[in-house]
Amino acid sequence: MQYKKDVLRESLLVEAEQEFFEKGYLNASLRQIAKRSGMTIGNLYHYFESKEALFHELVKNEHENFIYMMKHHYEHEFVLDARGSGDIRVWKGFLRNFLSDLKPIFTKRFLIMLDMSTGTNYENTKGEFVQFVSAHFLEHSKDAATARVTSPKFAELISRQLIDGIMYAIRSVPDENERLDLLTDLFLFYMMGINEMTKY
Amino acid sequence: MQYKKDVLRESLLVEAEQEFFEKGYLNASLRQIAKRSGMTIGNLYHYFESKEALFHELVKNEHENFIYMMKHHYEHEFVLDARGSGDIRVWKGFLRNFLSDLKPIFTKRFLIMLDMSTGTNYENTKGEFVQFVSAHFLEHSKDAATARVTSPKFAELISRQLIDGIMYAIRSVPDENERLDLLTDLFLFYMMGINEMTKY
Amino acid sequence: MQYKKDVLRESLLVEAEQEFFEKGYLNASLRQIAKRSGMTIGNLYHYFESKEALFHELVKNEHENFIYMMKHHYEHEFVLDARGSGDIRVWKGFLRNFLSDLKPIFTKRFLIMLDMSTGTNYENTKGEFVQFVSAHFLEHSKDAATARVTSPKFAELISRQLIDGIMYAIRSVPDENERLDLLTDLFLFYMMGINEMTKY
Amino acid sequence: MQYKKDVLRESLLVEAEQEFFEKGYLNASLRQIAKRSGMTIGNLYHYFESKEALFHELVKNEHENFIYMMKHHYEHEFVLDARGSGDIRVWKGFLRNFLSDLKPIFTKRFLIMLDMSTGTNYENTKGEFVQFVSAHFLEHSKDAATARVTSPKFAELISRQLIDGIMYAIRSVPDENERLDLLTDLFLFYMMGINEMTKY
DNA sequence: AATGAATGAGGGTTCATTCAT
DNA sequence: AATGAATGAACCCTCATTCAT
């Protein structure tokens, strides 16, 4: 039975992923999830004790990876320091590698955790992520001659935008390579924009 | 009681604005809106004949202004042509004026219409806006040497990002001047980013 | 003001007639009636103290006439006695006159009182009418050789049918002459049917 | 609880039958039906997914039988041809057999489908039935010397009356044999009436 | 492990009626 | 005489959750 149990549990998570992705946490229906898994609503509660718990199980690994990444971000620091180089092709190369490494993080469930979690304990995660990236930006613009991009509000805005761009790529571009291209251009766009902004 | 009608109707609209803003159309509760206005749910239906009608009343002016702006966008065309100038201060001046003109459009209710309208007739408005801006981008990048930003997917992404940036400014920056500054920087950022992208 | 009052009151009755006719008492909406009269729901209550009272005002004359007719039915007795005659044209002539005399009774409001009054004090009127006609039938078949049509259940059925036929004519045939023709044929049909039934 | 399901479901259908029978579809209350079955309104939705679905379950068999009967009516054609016989007892015999065969059709739920279904998909069924019988009448009166009963309006009226008579028998005569007697007399009455009408 | 019956609260909506103005 | 704001109960329906089997 253990085998069957795991299969069903996994099926529930898969269908829950789709349901949360389509409707968000609050509007997702446990009945729908159970039905899609060919299962009874009552039985769903044998696997997950509540709607919130199901959501938690769905994204907890993503959350851990995400937290880990935030704690160890300095390992990737070099990438952003590559801005010093004048050659855009070098930048692109670094960026593509960097983003390729992040593939395991930028998953559908990661998107769900950040963007479809209103009503759960995770609803502030996106804000935390924004703050993290924003702090990053501010830190790196200390060297810059002017303080324009050090405006916290603008840094937060740009950070949120970047994150929303990532979300968009995950949500709308299913093909992995195409998505990586898009993300690379997106990051390039942001880095060059910031670069330019600090010139004046 | 005639005199109270306008007051209460306005109160309902204000509370509805808050409720829709917080929860979105589908999750907003008419009972909540009525309660916040010190009123019974039944009475709310004296003022608005349905949830959708209430939403419509809330955003219809915003929608009209928005449509008008899209139809008459060429009047502001000169702004973007100012990109030819090499002086960033000229750009900023133009942008600030341009965005100042748009102030009556970038309201909280506009945000609600674009971002909290799932389930209403307005739910596609944001998509239309994105397409509009995206077409604009593509048109203006015909002159550019390379076709990088003419990738429709990237143009759409950038357009969506820009619009989301506007939404963010409306949502998070209450002070008008501060918001105008932020939006100016945001647009500047996008124009320079696009400018740079077309170089390579 | 008295003049205006009567006009409005009459207008309310006219619109109520239409509403009750279309939806029946329970499903009729006072709001609709007021709206159709270009009037406020509140003001309707100045003219009629309740939904039931409005219905009562609408059909009370019909009810009085109806009661009067039932009490004085013997005045029309001769008509039915004409059955003795073997000539169908004589029957038809009598019937047409008889039914023409009843025109003031067979009105739309009479129909409403009998068929659209569920939920009011009048909801049993149709049953009383059926019993009245049924008693009539039974009385006249005492002379007949057999007791077939004296079966109370059958008499009641035939009576109800006849009344429903009248209702149908009122409801579905707007032209007065056409309606009179139809009713004449209908009564003829019933008289001949009864005549035949008593033969065996 | 599996064992209770069928019992409760049946109970709901029985109570629904009573409620629809008493108040018609639109005025029937699901709360009442649930309460009468000793159940919560929410639970009723475990058994039937909507008010309309409940109504559908109640009458779907009746509707199928009814459609089948209309398609295969020619099998019973001989009955009406028996009119050629001069002996009323022969008619009665045929009629009684004919109507006895129809017993499974003339049920309380059949009555609900025809007469209490306003607001459902079945609300036109009675009209279709009337047209069916009416066409039947018209077809059989082609042979007759005169065109009196071929008046479509009169044929429709008579057809509606006959059907209403059946409805009355179902509604008011619980005993099966008594009902069969009544229906036989009713049909006899109509056949003789039509017969007589075509004489003149 | 699995079923699905059952609950209770909440959703949007309509209604007859009351009453201050 | 007239307005229309306000109430409260009822409508159909959906949901997360509980629990006896």
Largest sheet of chain A: none
Which percent band covers the strand fraction of chain A?
under 5%
Quaternary organisation: homotetramer
Number of domains of chain A: 2
Structural class of chain A: mainly alpha
Low-confidence runs of at least 5 consecutive residues of chain A: 78-83
Q: How much helicity do the residues of chain A have?
A: over 70%
Largest interface: A-B, 31 and 30 residues
Give, in order, the helices and strands of chain A.
HHHHHHHHHH
Number of helices in the DSSP assignment of chain A: 10
Q: State the total count of DSSP E strands of chain A.
A: 0
Mean pLDDT value of chain A: 85
Basic shape of chain A: elongated
Straight-line N-to-C gap of chain A: 67 Å
Radius of gyration of chain A: 20 Å
Give structural notes:
Four copies of one chain form a homotetramer. Chain A is mainly alpha-helical and 200 residues long. Chain A folds into two domains: 48 residues, Homeodomain-like (Arc Repressor Mutant, subunit A); 139 residues. Chain A is 74% helix and 0% strand. Chain A is built from ten helices and no strands. In chain A, helix 1 packs antiparallel against helix 2, helix 1 packs across helix 4 and helix 1 packs across helix 7. Chains in contact: A-B, C-D. Chains A and B meet through helix 9 and helix 10 of A and helix 9 and helix 10 of B. Chain B binds a DNA duplex (21 and 21 nucleotides) through helix 1 and helix 3.
